[in-house]
Amino acid sequence: MSSLDRSVSTSRAKVSVSRDDQGAFFSLATGEGKEPLDVRVGFERRGQIGLRTDLLARAIGFKKNNPLRVFDATAGLCRDSFHFFCLGCQVLAIEAQPILFEVVSEQLARQVHSDRLKLIRGDAVEFLTTQAKELSAAPAFDVIYLDPIFAHDKSKSARSGKESELLRALAAEPDEAADQQLLVAALAFKGVRVVVKRPLRAKEISVPADGKNLFLSKHSIKGAAIRYDVYTC
Ligand SMILES: C[S@@+](CC[C@H](N)C(=O)[O-])C[C@H]1O[C@@H](n2cnc3c(N)ncnc32)[C@H](O)[C@@H]1O
């Protein structure tokens, strides 16, 4: 039997956290008369990842025997962070939403428990801004990865429908200005590759052309439904 530990109601859904012998999971109730959907956070390793075909590996510029240090600024359910981890990267992920942070960190401790994948709670813009100020020598990351909630997220085939609904229910509303702030904070790190996940046909997040970011070059890695915009400076 599961024990109900806490719940949160938003305008979009009611989300409860319960626990059973497999750990913590979410129950997502999206409307009256609808059965709540259980969403479990699982981290199962897949077989070998094909580096030439894997979009995320290509987007972060991963090469065999060259593990990268990745900062995931929008951890969510840590699906992408776990993918970087499975590639062999050192991953630091940050999540602002308290319940997501709590459940995902609990499951990471249960299922992954490795120093190579760490989740912290906080705001990525604040974290990156502080890091950028304190940075005296080389940056602590090779890659900064951003996957902000997008207004029309249906095309994000990488997430199952219920995971997407859960993230939409818990995370802050899509906000262009917040996305831009996050991208600008990431681009402050010279020599760090910044990768932004977008639905395939969405416009890119605009960067203010104030002269500070003119050394940007950008390309995209495209999949069937999503693309990764890659910025190097
Ligand atoms: C679309 S989800 C990311 C999904 C994630 N890539 C995965 O694999 O599960 C975006 C997440 O970023 C978080 N987020 C957005 N802005 C943030 C910020 N400034 N700092 C920390 N977390 C943030 C949201 O709370 C949400 O959980």
What's the structural blueprint in terms of helices and strands?
Blueprint: E1 3-9, E2 14-20, E3 23-29, E4 37-40, H1 55-60, E5 69-72, H2 79-87, E6 90-95, H3 98-111, E7 117-121, H4 124-134, E8 143-146, H5 161-170, H6 176-187, E9 193-199, E10 217-222, E11 226-232
Parallel strand pairs: 5-6, 5-8, 6-7, 8-9
Antiparallel strand pairs: 1-2, 2-3, 3-4, 9-11, 10-11
Helix pairs in contact: 4-6
The structure holds S-adenosylmethionine (SAM).
3D architecture notes:
The protein is α/β, with parallel strands linked by helices and 233 residues long. The protein has a single domain, classed as Vaccinia Virus protein VP39 (Rossmann fold, 3-Layer(aba) Sandwich), CATH 3.40.50.150. The chain has 6 helices and 11 strands. The strands form 2 sheets. It has a 7-stranded mixed sheet, with helices on both faces. About 2% of the residues have low confidence. It binds S-adenosylmethionine. S-adenosylmethionine (SAM) binds next to α2, β6 and α4.
